[in-house]
Amino acid sequence: MDTPLNPIAVLLHLEQRAQRMRSLPELGFVIANETWQLFPYRQAAVFTAEHGDRARLTQLSNLATLSEDSPFTVWLKRLGAHCWKAMRAEDAQSAPLRRLLPDALPPSLAEEWSEWMSPYVFLLALVDPSGQRRGFLLISADEDASEQQQALLARLGATYAYCIGALARQRPALLARVRGALRKPWRKLALLAVLAAVMAMPVRLSVLAPAEIVALHATAVSAPLDGVVKSFQVDPNQSVKRGELLFTLDDTTLRNRRDVAQQALSVARADALRATQKAFDNAQSKGELASLNGQVREKEAELAWLDEMLGRVLVRAPRDGIVVFGDPNDWLGKPVSTGERIALLADQDDAGVLVWLPAADAINLEPGADIRVFLHVAPLSPLHGELTETSYQATVSPDNIAAYRIKGRITADDGKVARIGLKGTAKIYGHRVPLVYYVLRRPLAALREWSGL
Fold first, then answer.
1. Which of 14, 98, 155, 401 is surrounded by the most beta carbons within 10 Å?
2. What's the pLDDT score for residue 417?
3. 73: left (phi over 0), alpha (psi -120 to 50) or beta
4. Pick the CATH number of 218-343 from 1.10.150.120, 2.60.40.10, 2.40.50.100, 3.40.605.10
5. Residue 5 pLDDT grade (very low, low, confident, very high; cuts 50, 70, 90)
6. Which residues are CB-contacts of 19 (< 8 A; sequence separation ≥ 6)?
7. Is residue 111 scored above 50 in pLDDT?
8. Residue 152: closest CA among 283, 4, 262, 293
9. May I ask which residue range the UniProt record assigns to the signal sequence (predicted)?
10. Cα–Cα distances in Å, from 294 out to 274, 302, 409?
11. pLDDT score of 253
């Protein structure tokens, strides 16, 4: 709509605009950017009272958002603090509109006056009908205000103050309500007593760390001899029975050696048989018979050893359980040494939790401490357990951080649903400490690390 030219009509229009605003930021925007219709100016700044003892810069004309760290804003905040202090020292019923002169300002503000301000600067106090100061409007203009404009600005300032008070009463600041509730000394003492009691309340120390469900007493399945993994007959995490074939090693070299040994044994037996036949009439053959029989026994022992090694290439489960190993493709064709662990045989009913507690988060833990495990697959159904063992020296965890290796036992009921290999987060509980120590433990540790005390 077109702005009315009649000053009274402009005043009524601005009052109506202010009364329609539903929040303090909206009202501040109208005050800073539409008051020029009544008195043209170059710059306007809105300061709103906070808690009665200070005024905060809330809006600048021609700006959608206020830049808190610009040089002009910093200087304007200092000027506003000085003006608010001077206003509070005066009577609230004094003239609402006055002109500001640099001569009346401290030197630190006056020396930058000409850099930021126009020739005519006015301060419009926003005082509501009850006499309460709601803030003020700082106006920087190129021309002086006429008597009519001064009178209309004074009337408009009272309307602005009334609207600010109405909006502030709708949703008073939380801190202001708390201050109002604590005006009486006995309430402050009661609050301090309650805070002291709460801070002294004993709570249990706790720490969070990555966790994995493991078998507490697993049996290692190792390579029985040097060789190459040929094939797996089971899948990872598969249930197996005692004696069931797990994997086989390549037997090509052993079978070739056995064939050679078999032929060597046949030759040795033939030589021994000929010597036996000649021994009846040949003294030399009789003397060689013992040596040839010894070679036969040697070849028989070598063949028996190779047969035993061929039997070992078939690796079977030593007991019932779940066979745990990685990707079979990572093992196929891989050379292994005697005793090298290839898989684990775990008991599902013997499930536990393995926790890597970072050294930076470590707390004093004793065997029997409670553990709650939140698995990734069921974060709303924690498993309960107790700590069984902890390392006294930090080692490098799978995440390449210094951590303590902690093991715990899952309780019998929860152990039925805790599948080996699942991962999650464990919460380990320590001894009880005051709440104030629980809250300040990490900040104090960081402060000591930073300060070196």
1. 14
2. 64
3. alpha
4. 2.40.50.100
5. low
6. 159, 163
7. yes
8. 4
9. none
10. 15, 12, 59
11. 79
Residue 84's nearest CA partner among 118, 61, 58, 50 is 50
Q: Domain coordinates of the chain in residue numbers?
A: 7-170, 218-343, 347-451
In this structure, how many other beta carbons lie within 10 angstroms of the beta carbon of residue 259? 11
Per DSSP, what are the bridge partners of residue 55? 49
pLDDT at 453: 64
> What CATH number labels 347-451?
2.40.30.170
What six digits make up the tokens of 257?
Answer: 């050696």
pLDDT grade for 425, boundaries at 50, 70 and 90: very high
Nearest alpha-carbon partner for 369 in 430, 438, 432: 430
pLDDT tens string 246-303: 888 887 877 888 788 888 888 878 877 777 766 666 656 555 677 777 777 888 888 8
Radius of gyration of the chain (CA): 45
Which pLDDT value is given to residue 259? 82
Tell me which residue has tokens 């005006």.
Answer: 183
Q: Output the pLDDT for position 1.
A: 44
Q: What is the pLDDT of residue 173?
A: 56
Assess whether pLDDT exceeds 90 at residue 136: yes
Residue range 196-223, pLDDT digits in tens: 888 888 888 888 899 988 888 888 888 8
**Do the domains spanning 7-170 and 347-451 agree at the CATH topology level?**
no
The pLDDT score that the predictor gives to residue 285 is: 56
Q: Which residue has the tokens 């005793």?
A: 339
d(CA 355, CA 329): 28
Q: How far apart are CA 276 and CA 293, in angstroms?
A: 10
Examine the pLDDT at 25 and tell me if it is beyond 80.
Answer: yes
3 pLDDT more than 50: no
